[in-house]
Structure formats: structure tokens, C-alpha cells
């Protein structure tokens, strides 16, 4: 990679009818805000739930920082887990980066995205790792150029393999008869 991933202006709206993706997008925004302002996660969660999540008549949409149709319980769970396990999650991200890309060099939006994804991947009862990767790549497309999304994909994949190795283990041989069940 020749330079840091480039941030781009977020797309006009999150994917319609995907409240879990909206929750992940809001979580990335909230984690970014918390890091930038130093506000505790609970204060940022409250701000988002009151002012940014859901449809409010007369208020702008995604381009104004709102995340309509977000799954609020999922949003809260991701932000709380990322805040509670911050040091451990940062270590997972560090271990998933190439040596010449320290965590502190990563764009703050991308750091927030990696922390949110790592929080979900650390939960063994959470959605499958490939689902988490795809969801955060959808979010990344809203903030990063193509090179940045490729970079994010590589780090997300490395984190998922580190946190959920069983999901990436090669499948055993097919049973006799040629078909796997």
C-alpha cells in the first residue's frame, strides 16, 4: 500500500432496510466521536439514541450524521463492548496490521471501524465472522476509497482468523458417496 487509506465523503444513505448495518455504521461513528472528543461511551450512546438514530420529522438524513433504521440494541452492544474491551481490541487490531502500520497511524474512522468489528468478532455467540467482515466492508465503502476498502478487508480478515480460527479451518473430506451434508 503506497499511503494511508483515503477517506471519502459518506454516501447519501445507508443500505435501505438493513437495521443491523445501520447499527454498525452508527457504532463506527460513535466510537470515532468518543475518541475525538474524549466523551465516555455511555454519553455518546445517549447522544446517538436521542439525536441520531431513527427518523425524526424535519431532521436530515445520513449525510447530516443521522443513521435512520439502526438496530438500537445492537448499536449499544457494539459500542459498550468496544469501550469495555478497548485495550484488548486494540491489541487484536495491532496484531492484524503489518509491522509498518502501527494502530496510531491508521485513520481514526478506520480505527473505529476495526474496534467495532473486533468487538463483534470477540463474541463467539455473535454472527458468523464472514457476515461481520461483509457488514463492516459495506460500512467501509461509505467512508473509504477502493484502496482503503481493500486495506480494511485485509485487516478484517486477519482479525477474524485470529479471533475465530475454527470458522476458517478447512473442511474435512466429503463422506463416501461424494456429497457433504
Automatic annotation (TrEMBL):
Keywords: RNA-binding, Transcription, Transcription antitermination, Transcription regulation
The NusB/RsmB/TIM44 domain, residue ranges: 23-161
Top-level taxonomic group: Bacteria
Composition bias type Basic residues, residue spans: 1-11
Region (Disordered): 1-22
Gene3D superfamilies: NusB-like (1.10.940.10)
InterPro entries the UniProt entry points to: NusB-like_sf, NusB_fam, NusB_RsmB_TIM44
Similarity comment: Belongs to the NusB family.
Reported function: Involved in transcription antitermination. Required for transcription of ribosomal RNA (rRNA) genes. Binds specifically to the boxA antiterminator sequence of the ribosomal RNA (rrn) operons.
Protein name from the UniProt record: Transcription antitermination protein NusB
Amino acid at each position: 500500500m503506497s499511503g494511508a487509506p483515503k477517506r471519502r465523503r459518506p454516501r447519501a444513505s445507508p443500505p435501505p432496510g438493513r437495521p443491523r448495518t445501520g447499527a454498525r455504521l452508527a457504532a463506527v461513528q460513535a466510537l470515532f466521536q468518543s475518541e475525538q472528543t474524549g466523551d465516555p461511551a455511555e454519553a455518546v450512546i445517549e447522544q446517538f439514541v436521542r439525536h441520531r438514530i431513527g427518523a425524526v420529522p424535519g431532521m436530515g438524513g445520513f449525510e447530516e450524521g443521522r443513521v435512520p433504521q439502526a438496530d438500537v440494541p445492537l448499536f449499544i452492544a457494539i459500542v459498550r463492548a468496544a469501550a469495555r474491551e478497548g485495550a484488548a481490541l486494540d491489541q487484536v487490531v495491532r496484531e492484524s496490521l503489518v509491522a509498518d502500520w502501527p494502530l496510531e497511524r491508521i485513520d481514526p474512522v478506520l480505527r473505529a471501524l476495526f474496534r467495532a468489528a473486533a468487538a463483534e468478532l470477540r463474541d463467539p455467540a455473535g454472527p458468523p465472522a464472514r457476515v461481520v467482515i461483509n457488514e463492516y466492508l459495506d460500512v467501509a465503502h461509505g467512508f473509504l476509497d477502493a484502496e482503503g476498502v481493500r486495506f480494511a478487508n485485509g485487516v478484517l480478515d486477519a482479525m477474524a482468523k485470529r479471533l475465530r480460527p475454527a470458522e476458517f479451518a478447512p473442511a474435512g473430506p466429503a463422506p463416501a458417496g461424494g456429497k457433504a451434508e
